[in-house]
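Lab notebook, bench 4. The sequencing result for the construct came back, and we need a structural model before the next group meeting so we can plan mutations. Quick request posted to the team channel:

Model the 3D structure of this chain.
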Amino acid sequence: MWRKRYHEDPEQSDRWLVSYADFITLLFAFFVVMYAMSSVQEQKARQLSNSIGLALGKKAPSPVLPDAAPTPSEADLLPPSVTRRRKSIAQREQSQMKGIAQALDDRLSALVKQGKVRVTRSSRGISIEIDAAILFAPADARLNPASIAALESIAEILRPHANAIEVEGHTDSRAIETAAYPSNWELSAARASRVVRLLAASGIDETRLRAVGHAANHPVASNETTQDRLRNRRVEIQVLSGEPAARSSSAID
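Done. Here's the predicted structure in token form:
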């Protein structure tokens, strides 16, 4: 009996494509891995090096801190023209404030030498500290006639400028209770307001002026002696710097 022969399928000529596709896939994967390794940050490489050294018994390395990326400041984000303009304005403001402080120091030199007036530069601008004893009688907010000339001199120097002016009244820690002033709050506020009224009457625009009463809450001395209490009873005229970038905390040269 004759066996039935099975005919073999003709040899396929495209079998090589399977092997070629596998090779291309492996090659692609290889390049992906190589690219990933080349993109490892320096920090990770240092961590790997330290870990290997520690495993080999070397001294424990110091922890690797992430590199701090510099935070751009506002000035770095502004166009150069704006930065230059701001710098120019700040320089003019500094020069102007220094000139005002020097003019005040010269005009009030007699009182400055006696220690009754102090002109200083601060982070806010210029501070003119005046002992309350030369301005007011005890427990009173009416200006002494002899003090009016000094305040008018201050107004004359400040009048041409546009800086805001804040007048602060301060007292010592001794309590006061009168019909006019039930506490140091009323007394300090009334004294600051009285100085503001004189400055306005001397030609300073009222929109630039502000009166603040602090009572005994901002002493500059201990309040334990008569001299300290005299020091704390004061009025401060703050000439505020117009540009925050121009503010400095240096004393008068």
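Residues 170 and 215 are 5 Å apart (CA to CA).
Will bring this to the meeting.
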